[in-house]
UniProtKB/TrEMBL annotation:
Claim: Transferase is one of the keywords in the record: yes
Coiled-coil portions: none
InterPro entries registered for this protein in UniProt: SAM-dependent_MTases_sf
Any one GO MF annotation of this record: methyltransferase activity
Pfam families per the UniProt record, alphabetical: Methyltransf_23
Protein name: S-adenosyl-L-methionine-dependent methyltransferase
Source species: Tothia fuscella
UniProt keyword list: Methyltransferase, Transferase
GO biological process: methylation
PANTHER family on file: 2-METHOXY-6-POLYPRENYL-1,4-BENZOQUINOL METHYLASE, MITOCHONDRIAL, METHYLTRANSFERASE
Keyword Transferase listed: yes
Length: 272
């Protein structure tokens, strides 16, 4: 799987981002968005079997890290995040959390067999600079895995034109975050960015991540089922926090947009 000459990497693209810290985490803690679509288990298979050192960047609730550490008592799992929101109890001794901004210097005690960065879209301003860090901090042949959505959201059928409330809201989020240098479509350039850093054996997987119960496939339906409450919770704070503040849209207009967008989400004919 891994070669001494370089690092391997897996990129997974999703079509939706949900990231409003407090709100998102509160929902995420209950549902673990990635579990239903098997990302969790896929991730586990990517970590080399005998990995001694694993790093989970932007760990969030730390759930992946806790599960992984429990399943692999011989591995040391370090989990970083801007916020110390991870649990203090029932954490296995081989799982350690550290407050760290991943965009600053990485000064860890050792190199890693595997580094994971899931759903960091809204937290990374300079992806080429970010990829230097895992490159320098992976053991030869180590694995990097990044999972990112893209934003604005898409529509799987032709039921939603560019001016539906959801489309307007999600375009607003893209525009607002771009003011701070976030590229919410970066996933489209992720592969070449990673290649330029020198990583080898890059695998890219793209898949749709539904919101709502419309998909036919069992797995996709389950994702849609979990995504609906997540996006519902994310809608108002993201709009008020980003669209009003960064784009200076009047608050009342944004409130109306949120209301319309929430109704729009309930419309099962629209395949967001
Ligand atoms: C959407 S959550 C994803 C959490 C987790 N990786 C998962 O997939 O469940 C994004 C997390 O990345 C963290 N984050 C964002 N930017 C970061 C940065 N520059 N350094 C460290 N953590 C960051 C946030 O605090 C948040 O907990």
């Amino acid at each position: 799987m891994a070669e001494a000459s370089g690092h391997e990497v897996k990129i997974i693209g999703l079509n939706l981002e949900v990231d409003d810290q407090a709100k998102w985490h509160s929902t995420h803690a209950e549902t673990d968005l990635t579990a239903p679509n098997a990302e969790k288990s896929e991730t586990l298979t990517l970590v080399p079997k005998n990995a001694k050192h694993v790093l989970d960047v932007g760990t969030g609730t730390g759930q992946w890290a806790i599960d992984y550490a429990k399943a692999h008592p011989n591995a040391q799992v370090l989990d970083t995040d801007l916020s110390a929101i991870q649990p203090k109890e029932n954490v296995p001794p081989n799982c350690n959390f550290k407050v760290h901004n991943t965009e600053t210097e990485w000064e860890f005690e050792h190199k890693f067999d595997s580094i994971l960065g899931r759903m960091l879209l809204m937290g990374i301003h300079d992806w080429p600079a970010f990829f230097v860090k895992p490159w320098d901090n992976l053991k030869p042949g180590g694995w990097l895995e990044v999972v990112n959505p893209e934003f604005p959201v898409g529509c799987d059928n032709e039921s939603a034109g560019p001016d539906t409330p959801i489309m307007r809201w999600s375009r607003g989020i893209r525009e607002a975050t771009s003011i701070d240098g976030i590229d919410t479509l970066i996933v489209r350039k992720m592969r070449s960015t990673i290649e330029e850093q020198g990583f080898l054996n890059i695998r890219e997987e793209r898949f749709k991540w539904a919101t709502g119960p419309w998909p036919k496939g069992e797995k996709e339906k389950e994702i849609g089922h979990w995504m609906l409450p997540n996006l519902t919770v994310f809608m108002a704070p993201s709009a008020m926090g980003l669209i009003t503040k960064k784009l200076n849209w009047p608050k009342e207009d944004v409130k109306d947009l949120v209301k319309e967008a929430l109704d729009d989400l309930e419309d099962t004919n629209r395949h967001y």
